[in-house]
Design a protein that fits this description.
The protein is of the alpha/beta class. 50% of the residues lie in helices and 13% in strands. Among the domains are: 189 residues, HAD superfamily/HAD-like (Rossmann fold, 3-Layer(aba) Sandwich), CATH 3.40.50.1000; 33 residues, no CATH class. The strands form five sheets. Strands 5-4-1-6-7 form a five-stranded parallel beta sheet, with helices on both faces. Strand 15 and strand 16 form a beta hairpin.
Length: 565
C-alpha cells in the first residue's frame, strides 16, 4: 500500500526535529475502532458489560483529574475507577493492547527519516505508560527514535496543545523547527498548525481502506459490531500488506477465511468431545481448526457422505431412488443399465445386496473406530436435511453418544442432538448462499461415488466442471489457512468469535462486487446427489430453470413443515 505524498516527501529547510503520533499512525490495532478492543475482551474473557463500563471508567477518571486538559488520566487511575468485578482484567487489557501491527506507509517514512539521520520523537495522547508503548513499537520494528512523550506521564495532551509545548521546550525548538505527522484531524493537524508547527495529516488505515473499498465501508456501517470490526480490520491489514489481488487465493483469504474461522470458533465452543469433520466439506475446516486451536480437542477427518449411509445405514430405503443407487454402486454388472433395470436387478438379488451392504458397513465401522478413537464424538458438517452423517456415525458406533454441529441447519427440532451456526428456520435467510459456503469448505478431491469394503472412498469420474474446481482448490486452502494464521498473529490466543450474521453480510460483499462476480459466475457447483447438475455460485440467467424448480420445491417443503408443526 502506498500513501500519496509520503514516498517522495521531503522535510523542508529549517526543520530540526520530526515528530510522529503513534496509534493509527505508526502502529495499528486489529480493530476498526479502539473501543472494539474492549468488546473483544468482554467476549473472550466472559465479562458481560465490561466494554461499556471500561469506556465509562475512562471518562470518569478523566473528569476527576481536570476537564481543562491540564492533567491526563493514567491506566492505573482508570482501573481504580472501574467497577470492582472488572479489576482483575487490568493485566489482560495490556495483553490485548500488545496486539498491534506496523502501519507500513507511515512506518516506512519513519525508517527513511531515521536512515537519513533525522532526529525523530514520538508523541501520543495515551493512558498507557511509555515502557508499554515502547515494547509495542519494538515488536513492530519501530526503533531509532529519541524521546517518547506520552500524555499520561506529562499531565498535558496534544488536543489542547500542552504536549506540543512540552516538546518544544524540552528540545529548545521554535515551532517552525518541528514537523509533526499524525492521523487525527484536530490533535495532529489543526492544533499544531495553529501553533506554527509544520504538520502533515496522514489518513488512518481504516480511512484509507474504506476510501478504496466502498462496499466494505457499507458493510461495517451497517451494524458496527465486534464481528464486523474484526472482519473489516483484518481485511484492511491484508490490503495494507499485500494490496488488492483478484486471484482465487485472495478471494479465499478475504471471504472464505472469515466464514471458515467463524464456524471453526463456533465448533470449538460446542463442547469438549473429540471432533469428526465429515468429508468432503470438512477438509478445509479441520486444517483451519488446527491452526486456530491446535490439539485442544482431538480432531479427525471422517468419510461419512450420503452415499455411505445409503450403502450401510439402517434406514437406507428412505432415500429416493435407493434401489438403483445401490445396484449401480455395489454390482459392476449393472454398469450401463438404466435406473429401471437397476431396480429390477435389486429386487431380484436382495440377499446379495444385504451381504454386500454388510461388508461395506464393516469397513466403514472399522475405519471410523480407527479414526475416532475412544469416547463420545461430535460430528462436524456444513449443512444437513436428514442428519445423514450423524446418523451413520451413531449407527456404526452404537456404544457412543454422538452429537452434531452444522454451519446451516434447518431448525432446532431435528431428530438428533445438534447445534447450528445458522438456524435457517422454515424459509432460508436472505443471503444464505449454501453453494458458496460449501465451495469454500470442501476438499481438493472429486465427489465420492461409493465406499469400498475397507471404508475408503471410491471417487466419481472427474467432469470438466469438477476439474476446473480441483485446479484452483490448492489456492482456496492456502488462502483460508493463511487467514487463520493471521488471526493467530493479530489476536494471539484470544480468537474473536465471528457471528454468522456478519459473516453472511461479508459474503454478500463478495457476491455483489463487479470485479469478483465473473470469477464466481464461471465456477460451477454440483447441486444434485449424482453431481451432474452444476450452477454458478452467484445468480446467473443460465441457471434460471434450476432456481425456479428449487423455489417451487422449497416452498412446498416449507408449507408442509408448517402444517406438521
Amino acid at each position: 500500500m502506498a500513501m500519496p505524498g509520503l514516498d517522495d516527501l521531503t522535510i523542508g529547510d529549517g526543520v530540526k526535529v520530526v515528530s510522529f503520533d503513534i496509534f493509527d499512525t505508526l502502529i495499528v490495532r486489529p480493530y476498526i475502532r479502539p473501543k472494539d478492543l474492549f468488546a473483544h475482551m468482554e467476549q473472550a474473557e466472559g465479562a458481560p458489560g465490561f466494554a461499556a463500563e471500561r469506556v465509562d471508567a475512562e471518562k470518569r477518571s478523566s473528569r476527576s483529574v481536570g476537564a481543562d486538559g491540564s492533567r491526563e488520566t493514567t491506566f492505573d487511575a482508570i482501573y481504580e475507577e472501574i467497577a470492582p468485578q472488572y479489576r482483575h482484567l487490568k493485566e489482560a487489557e495490556l495483553r490485548y493492547e500488545a496486539n498491534v501491527v506496523r502501519y507500513r506507509p507511515v512506518a516506512d517514512l519513519f525508517d527513511r527519516l531515521i536512515a537519513e539521520g533525522r532526529e525523530v520523537v514520538l508523541i501520543s495522547d495515551m493512558y498507557l505508560p511509555s515502557e508499554r508503548i515502547a515494547s509495542m513499537l519494538e515488536s513492530c520494528g519501530i526503533r531509532g527514535y529519541g524521546r517518547l512523550y506520552v500524555s499520561c506521564e506529562h499531565g498535558v495532551n496534544k488536543r489542547h496543545g500542552g504536549l506540543f509545548r512540552r516538546v518544544l521546550e524540552d528540545l529548545g525548538l521554535r515551532p517552525e523547527e518541528l514537523h509533526h505527522f499524525g492521523d487525527n484531524a484536530h490533535s495532529d493537524h489543526r492544533v499544531p498548525k495553529g501553533m506554527g508547527i509544520r504538520a502533515t495529516r496522514v489518513p488512518s488505515l481504516a480511512e484509507s481502506y474504506f476510501g478504496r473499498h466502498r462496499r466494505a465501508a457499507r458493510f461495517h456501517r451497517r451494524d458496527g459490531s465486534l464481528s464486523s470490526s474484526v472482519i473489516a480490520a483484518t481485511d484492511a491489514i491484508r490490503w495494507m500488506e499485500h494490496g488488492d489481488d483478484l486471484s482465487w487465493r485472495e478471494v479465499a483469504y478475504r471471504f472464505g477465511g472469515p466464514a471458515v474461522c467463524g464456524y471453526c470458533a463456533f465448533v470449538h465452543d460446542s463442547g469438549d468431545r473429540p471432533l469428526a469433520f465429515v468429508a468432503r466439506d470438512g477438509y478445509n475446516l479441520i486444517r483451519v481448526y488446527r491452526v486456530l486451536f491446535g490439539d485442544s480437542r482431538r480432531a479427525t477427518y471422517l468419510y461419512a457422505p450420503r452415499i455411505a449411509y445409503i450403502l450401510a445405514g439402517r434406514d437406507y430405503a428412505s432415500y429416493r431412488n435407493h434401489k438403483a443407487i445401490l445396484a449401480d454402486r455395489l454390482f459392476p454388472e449393472c454398469a450401463g443399465m438404466d435406473d429401471g433395470e437397476r431396480e429390477r436387478f435389486f429386487d431380484g438379488h436382495l440377499q446379495e445386496v444385504e451381504a454386500r451392504r454388510s461388508s461395506v458397513a464393516a469397513g466403514i465401522r472399522a475405519r471410523m473406530e480407527e479414526a475416532a478413537g475412544g469416547g463420545d464424538l461430535t460430528v462436524v458438517d456444513v449443512t444437513t436435511l436428514k442428519y445423514t452423517s450423524q446418523r451413520l456415525v451413531s449407527e456404526m458406533l452404537p456404544d457412543r453418544e454422538v452429537d452434531g454441529v452444522y454451519y446451516f441447519v434447518l431448525d432446532d427440532s431435528g431428530p438428533l442432538p445438534h447445534r447450528g451456526y445458522c438456524v435457517r428456520g422454515v424459509f432460508p435467510q436472505p443471503g444464505s448462499n449454501i453453494n458458496l459456503t460449501e465451495f469454500f469448505m470442501t476438499a481438493p478431491e472429486p465427489p465420492v461415488r461409493s465406499i469400498d469394503d475397507s471404508g475408503m472412498p471410491v471417487y466419481e469420474e472427474v467432469s470438466d466442471q469438477e476439474r476446473r474446481r480441483l485446479d484452483i482448490y490448492g489456492d482456496i486452502t492456502d488462502g483460508e489457512v493463511s487467514y487463520a494464521e493471521d488471526m493467530k498473529r493479530l489476536y494471539g490466543g484470544s480468537i474473536p468469535r465471528l457471528e454468522y450474521g456478519a459473516v453472511s453480510r461479508w459474503l454478500r460483499v463478495l457476491t455483489g462486487d463487479r470485479l469478483y462476480r465473473p470469477m464466481l459466475a464461471d465456477m460451477g457447483w454440483p447441486v444434485d446427489p449424482a453431481n451432474r447438475v452444476y450452477v454458478s455460485m452467484v445468480l446467473h440467467p443460465r441457471d434460471s430453470l434450476y432456481y425456479l424448480k428449487k423455489a417451487v420445491l422449497d416452498t412446498g417443503s416449507a408449507l408442509l413443515r408448517l402444517v406438521r408443526h
